[in-house]
Specification:
Shape: elongated
Number of domains: 3
Distance between the termini: 96 Å
Oligomer: single chain
Strand order of the largest sheet: 2-1-4-3
Order of helices and strands: HHEEEEHHHHHEHEEHE
Largest sheet: 4 strands, antiparallel
Number of strands: 8
Strand content: 15-25%
Radius of gyration: 34 Å
Helix content: 55-70%
Length: 335
């Protein structure tokens, strides 16, 4: 009888311990969920909550965005593989792959019930936080894109000033001097030569000004469309070849046509300047999207980063989230 009583007391104690552990676990989980809700969509706050409840103070979150992988503070991070002594544990997984992962100390059993259940429970909140990180990354890229556009505009104005100074202005000064000599009188033949020289300089000036205007936005692009404007590039050199038959005379939204023209003309100018034979080929067609390609016999290695040698194309097409090269833009009719 005494043995049975002792066994009953021991069994009751075990039950109480199990109940206590369950209550404590539920209380801890409830506290964890409350802390997650209090963190809202703040990725840094969620990271701190996870680190505290998982007992892993070095836990770091990584978010997959359109601009690459970001940490909770919205800074770019590498994601090739975890560093020594670390492991990646996916928390939010999409069809394309992991969208949110936890970077943990390798000594933490991320698949254990205690740790894994907490990480999984944070999935819904982290999916929302990822959207916030994505929006912040897009805002940063938008500001950077605007700064690049402003800088590109400044550089283009300076280039236009140099072109006018070195070209048209010099021709006009020469024409002015020739007309001044003609105005002084003298032998009729000398006066006639001065006037003829002035006329030739003025003709050259008009051609250069037309060329500058055509480089900014050719009237032919607005009047006849992209195919005709691209065809006019052959006037730059007999080594330039254009095949725009694939456009079949179609028109596109003005911004699409202007962007495609800019990329094509920039590519042709680069080919004329930097390739050995100065030859370039422009192709354009439509296959669901408008595609414009520029090929030359150069050695390759063009860098389209903002600070590199071909920033014009990247800036001209670099709206955040927009694909480019070959300039890919949805086909649409002009408004």
């Amino acid at each position: 009888m005494v043995v049975d009583s002792a066994h009953l007391i021991l069994s009751s104690a075990v039950v109480l311990v199990v109940l206590g552990v369950a209550i404590a676990a539920n209380w801890r989980r409830a506290g964890f969920l409350d802390a997650l809700l209090a963190a809202g969509g703040d990725a840094v706050a969620i990271e701190a909550v996870l680190g505290r409840y998982v007992a892993e103070p070095t836990l770091r979150l990584r978010f997959c965005t359109e601009e690459g992988w970001m940490d909770a503070a919205r800074r770019p991070v590498a994601h090739a593989s975890p560093s020594a002594g670390r492991v990646f544990r996916p928390i939010v997984v999409e069809p394309a792959g992991p969208a949110v992962v936890a970077d943990l100390d390798a000594g933490v059993d991320s698949e254990s019930r205690a740790v894994g259940s907490l990480l999984d429970a944070a999935g819904v909140v982290l999916a929302r936080a990822r959207l916030s990180v994505q929006q912040a990354a897009q805002a940063v890229e938008l500001r950077a894109s605007r700064a690049r556009i402003v800088e590109a505009g400044v550089q283009q104005r300076r280039q236009l000033e140099r072109d006018l100074h070195d070209g048209a202005q010099q021709h006009l000064l020469a024409a002015q001097a020739a007309l001044a000599r003609a105005g002084l009188g003298g032998e009729p033949e000398a006066v006639a030569d001065a006037i003829a020289f002035a006329q030739s300089r003025l003709t050259t000036t008009m051609a250069e000004l037309r060329g500058l205007a055509r480089g900014q936005h050719p009237a032919l692009l607005s009047q006849a469309g992209l195919a005709s404007a691209l065809g006019s590039l052959v006037q730059l050199s007999d080594r330039v070849h254009v095949d725009a038959a694939g456009l079949d005379g179609r028109r596109f939204a003005p911004v699409v046509e202007a962007t495609a023209w800019f990329v094509a003309s920039e590519g042709v100018v680069n080919a004329l300047k930097y390739t050995d034979d100065g030859a370039g080929t422009v192709t354009a067609d439509v296959a669901g999207v408008l595609r414009v390609g520029i090929a030359d016999a150069g050695g390759g290695g063009a860098d389209f980063a903002p600070a590199a040698g071909s920033p014009g194309c990247a800036t001209g097409c670099g709206a955040p989230g927009a694909p480019w090269i070959s300039t890919a833009a949805p086909v649409s009719a002009p408004p």
